[in-house]
Amino acid sequence: xxxxxxxxKSTRRLSLCPEVxxxxxxxxxxxxxxxxxxxxxxxxxxxxxxxxxxxxxxxxDPALGGSRRAVGHFFMLNLRSRALHHLALGQSGGERKxxxxxxxxxxxxxxxxxHGAKKG
Length: 120
What we know:
The chain is α+β, with helices and mostly antiparallel strands.
């Protein structure tokens, strides 16, 4: 496992991770049956759910203000294909130990939040 993280120091290899994730998301959409087919009124909508999760701070994480802060990850789940997409990292520091979900959403641009969904 250490070799995997060592190779991510290369920006070229690190940029491959989101590319593979996008490719998997596209292929997942074609594999399973849409659980919302029984609801024709939802047919024109892309359906997503999102959530964030904080992990305990690792020993090697830098200390901020005398204490180590947890690492937060925010994800978006496509409810039709069940494909998971990483949205953002939670920012900690200052007076907050953990960044709230709404602050992360406000920080993101519309392109990231729409995730390729058509307008209208």
